[in-house]
Write the structure tokens for this entry.
Amino acid sequence: METIQCIEGRRSVRRFKQEQIPEKTLEELVSAASYAPSWKNTQTVRYTAIYDQALIARIANEAIPDFPANQKTILGAPVLIVVTTIDKRSGYDRDGTFSTSKGTHWQSFDAGLSVQTFCLAAHDKGIGTVVLGIYDEAAVSRLLDIPEGESVSALIPLGYPNEEPHMPLRKTTDILLRIIK
Ligand SMILES: Cc1cc2nc3c(=O)[nH]c(=O)nc-3n(C[C@H](O)[C@H](O)[C@H](O)COP(=O)(O)O)c2cc1C
């Protein structure tokens, strides 16, 4: 697929076929994500892939308390990816102090770059994804036994699409782009 076609054609997919995603394919997606840029090449983003439907159901029921739409999306996914990031590296100097006035901001920035790369690679292979930001981080960490020093950055249900979502309106470049000559 052409790069621009992949970027423009990716949509958030919230309904999936039950067809399974091979582990090998997931490895390819995470490998693609490893090419994303990161703060001083620290590569702090980690992917946990959950196939266990009982665990997915527990996450939907115990870690998405007040948002039924996300519960439904997760319950319908053959695989749930939990994206975590290692704390206190991205945006930090070696002596443990912040490198910039933005503090911990760069940790999420790196996660976003990695996740978008992952999602574009998935789309290229005909696999649908949606980034979920509404979840109870403490509950997800507890259910997955996420190691101390890692934060949950996003959930990504994924699978072969069972819908063709329309494209939410995009702002035009006269709003998005400022050119200084
Ligand atoms: C940081 C972030 C958090 C998001 N959280 C959710 C979410 O909790 N639930 C959901 O259904 N979609 C979520 N989305 C998906 C957005 O709603 C979606 O990307 C946006 O509407 C544009 O649609 P598109 O991805 O199809 O282009 C999130 C996206 C991002 C980048």
